[in-house]
Design a protein that fits this description.
Largest sheet: 5 strands, parallel
Shape: globular
Number of strands: 20
Number of helices: 8
Bound molecules: flavin-adenine dinucleotide
Oligomer: single chain
Length: 339
């Protein structure tokens, strides 16, 4: 949930301090909350070590998310702002509000990344801020992505619709641009380079080091699981951003909170049925949706069914005030349900 509000912090409609909920609230549901860093997972001994103690488990659910890896792009930390980094978000907002002219570059630097529509939302919200400050006509926004279309997981139709929304707000999309380095005022791609005044980046993502060090990603970047979310280790599951569930040989389930939630429910059902010695096994249905905020309290809604046959089904419902209200409700309901 914290991630979702970053875009509201970006456009100045929300403060970080008003968006926090203590995780200790889970104790009300009879869950012990251990606020310690996990430093080692040993799936053969069935133990989890934190900075202070060791726990033995019967079932383990790894839900450690991803870490941002800006260091994988030389020069990024020194010369760019990171959209997904909480401390950079107010800096992006202030920088954009103070600009009177120039060029803003927004760059997705690697796949997969969290919430595929979020960088497009950010571009649209930034355009909306510039319209408010009256500087929109003198500021160019260029969007760079390594993918040929805006939202490969959403398919060509949805990607085209997103492209049209971007174009209607004078945001230029440059597909097939894989960033390899950043220099002062300059983005370097595999196939060329461009200049910028302000760079807003979505950097590569990686699993938290404890996951890599505990041997969970021998052949890939994320923990590979199927729709039961079971890892190759006995009674160990991985849910949310830390995992990778392939839908086709090229498309994986996007990293989104709505899917992390669905996978959590699936795993809970499976563990309960194992404890009850029932034979049924739940599988993650891959159904969900994501909002695409376009500014001025308007949002589109991307409805997704990742395991529809023969291909994932995605539909973009037109931006409206109703969808924006649903986005606010989405946050409210999650906080009430889980915290
Ligand atoms: C700008 C933005 C907007 C988004 N908007 C949406 C949206 O509208 N809808 C949507 O569905 N999704 C959205 N997302 C994506 C969503 O936030 C993530 O997919 C979701 O949070 C993933 O949940 P998770 O539990 O897997 O990981 P996280 O939410 O990242 O939780 C992982 C937790 O594990 C902790 N952790 C990591 N390592 C350790 C360790 N060693 N020891 C102890 N704790 C550790 C982390 O600190 C973190 O608290 C958005 C993301 C961004 C960046």
């Amino acid at each position: 949930m914290m991630d979702l509000v970053k875009l509201w912090i970006l456009n100045g409609t929300r403060e970080f301090e008003l968006s926090k909920r203590p995780l200790e609230n889970v104790t009300r549901k009879g869950i012990e909350f251990v606020n310690e860093e996990v430093v080692r997972i040993d799936p053969t001994k069935k133990t989890v070590r934190t900075s202070y103690r060791q726990f033995h488990y019967d079932y383990l659910i790894i839900a450690l998310g991803v870490e941002l890896a800006p260091e994988q792009i030389p020069g990024l930390k020194e010369n760019g702002l990171v959209l997904y980094e909480l401390q950079d978000v107010p800096k992006i907002r202030d920088t954009v509000r103070k600009m009177s002219s120039g060029k803003i570059a927004i760059a997705i630097m690697a796949l997969p990344y969290k919430c595929p529509p979020a960088p497009y939302e950010a571009a649209l919200l930034i355009r909306s801020i510039l319209e408010e400050t009256g500087t929109s006509d003198s500021i160019q926004i260029d969007f760079y992505s390594p993918t040929p279309i805006t939202l490969p997981a959403g398919g060509p139709q949805v990607s085209e619709e997103i492209l049209q929304i971007l174009q209607s707000k004078k945001i230029e999309f440059h597909g097939n641009h894989k960033t390899i380095a950043v220099e002062p005022g300059k983005l370097k791609f595999e196939n060329g380079e461009t200049n910028f005044d302000v760079l807003i980046a979505i950097p590569p993502h990686k699993v938290p080091s404890v996951v890599a060090e505990s041997g969970f990603v021998p052949n890939g970047k994320f923990i590979e699981v199927d729709r039961t979310c079971k890892t190759s280790y006995d009674n160990v599951y991985a849910i949310g951003d830390v995992n990778q569930i392939m839908v086709t040989d090229k498309i994986a389930v996007p990293k989104a909170g709505i899917f992390a939630e669905g996978q959590g429910v699936t795993v809970a059902r499976n563990i309960i049925s194992q404890i009850k010695k029932e034979l049924e096994s739940a599988i993650f249905d891959g159904k969900g949706g994501c909002f695409l905020e376009t500014g001025k309290k308007i949002a589109g809604y991307l409805q997704v069914e990742m395991f529809a046959s023969p291909n994932p089904l995605t539909q973009l419902q037109s931006p409206s005030e109703d969808h924006f209200a649903e986005k606010e409700k989405f946050e409210r309901e999650r906080l009430e349900r889980w915290l």
